[in-house]
Amino acid sequence: QLLLSVWFTLIIGELTYIPAAQMTFSMISIITTIMAMFLQKKIYFTQDFVYITIDVTGQCVTDNIGITKRKINGIKCFLAESVLGVNRKSVDIEKPITIPHGVQLRIHITYIHDK
Predict the structure, then answer these.
(1) Residue 109: beta bridge partners?
(2) What does the angle CA 99 – CA 101 – CA 106 come to, to the nearest 5 degrees?
(3) Given CB 3.0 to 4.6 Å as the disulfide criterion, which of 15, 32, 38, 80 pairs with 91?
(4) What is the pLDDT of residues 38-93, one digit of tens each?
């Protein structure tokens, strides 16, 4: 995108507001992505566990609360294998807690680094 904006600006011969804003946001996006990669790598080497709490709310959740609570093993497998890329045993999801208009999931992710 950034290269296309620069090319477009060179063809037109002048820098207008829209390409300038687009180039600025593209640069911010690139810098943010690079910073996130370095931060993720640093977290990977310094953290042994992560604790995540997710509130899943909505009418469809409250209407199917029993089904939602039974799907925990599938969520655990999906998170471990597809999202996080860790062993299934490294992810533990506590029994869902019923909250107003939904459920709360508490997820513990542990990982022992190869040293």
Answers:
(1) 50, 91
(2) 40
(3) 80
(4) 877 777 777 778 888 988 888 877 787 777 777 888 888 888 888 777 788 888 88
Which run of H or E residues covers position 24? Answer: helix 17-46
Asked whether 72 and 88 are in contact (CB, 8 A), the reply is no
Distance of alpha carbon 27 from alpha carbon 35, whole angstroms: 12
pTM as predicted: 0.53
Classify each residue of 78-115 as buried b or exposed e, where b means 16 or more C-beta atoms within 10 Å of its C-beta.
ebbeeebeeeeeebebeebeeeeebbebebebeeeeee
Which region, left, alpha or beta, applies to residue 85 given φ > 0 means left and ψ of -120 to 50 means alpha?
Answer: left
In 58-101, where does DSSP find H-type helix?
Answer: 59-63, 65-70, 72-78
Residues in the chain: 115
